[in-house]
Write a structure and sequence with these properties.
The protein is mainly α. It is 69% helix and 0% strand. α7 packs antiparallel against α12 and α9 packs across α10.
Length: 195
């Protein structure tokens, strides 16, 4: 049995009618009114969110926001414990330690140096407009967080194939050569132990 589905089932069982109504209200920008009207349980709501890929084993941010929105700190704590205990296998678990460190450094440099043209970069990394719009909607008004979340989305979608070299190629393809140079410089420092 999938532990993530078991967790969602447990959450569903603990929701009151008022909490379910609140969750439906919080989801109205992601789920059509018609679908929401037919939802009678947390399980049905979570099923729709899973089908729309708003939540997944490796994508729990929106679920956490929903639980915080209905003031269920106990469920947020359960979700966080589940994640910490490795119940959710994130894509970076598939990378070796060196690549993880390199990605962390590269993403930090990119987030500090790429501004309003971040969407162009993410398109070069093959993220869809739907994925980008979802990130923007979830983090409206916070440009840096939009870029951070878009890069995480890229990492999740590529899994072990998410390579720093692809980030550098995409930066250069977008004529963001200065940022690409900074990433390479930081990685050189990391690899020679001067960072």
């Amino acid at each position: 049995m999938d532990p993530f589905l078991s967790l969602l089932h447990a959450f569903s069982s603990s929701l009151s009618d008022t909490e379910l109504s609140s969750l439906k209200f919080l989801c109205r920008d992601r789920i059509s009114k018609r679908k929401l009207e037919s939802v009678r349980s947390g399980r049905e709501l979570f099923t729709i969110l899973l089908e729309q890929q708003d939540i997944a084993r490796d994508k729990v941010d929106f679920l956490e926001e929903l639980l915080k929105g209905i003031k269920r700190k106990d469920l947020v704590a359960q979700l966080n414990q589940f994640v910490e205990e490795g119940g959710i296998n994130t894509s970076d678990d598939q990378l070796d330690e060196h690549e993880k460190r390199c990605q962390k450094v590269a993403i930090e440099v990119i987030c500090n140096n790429v501004g309003k043209h971040w969407r162009r970069l993410m398109r070069k990394l093959d993220l869809s407009e739907v994925q980008l719009d979802r990130v923007v909607e979830a983090h409206r008004g916070d440009l840096r967080e939009q870029l951070v979340q878009a890069l995480r989305e890229w990492q999740r979608s590529k899994g072990k194939d998410a390579k720093v070299t692809d980030l550098i190629k995409a930066l250069r393809a977008c004529e963001m050569n200065l940022v690409a140079d900074k990433v390479e410089q930081e990685l050189l420092g990391l690899n020679t132990g001067t960072r």
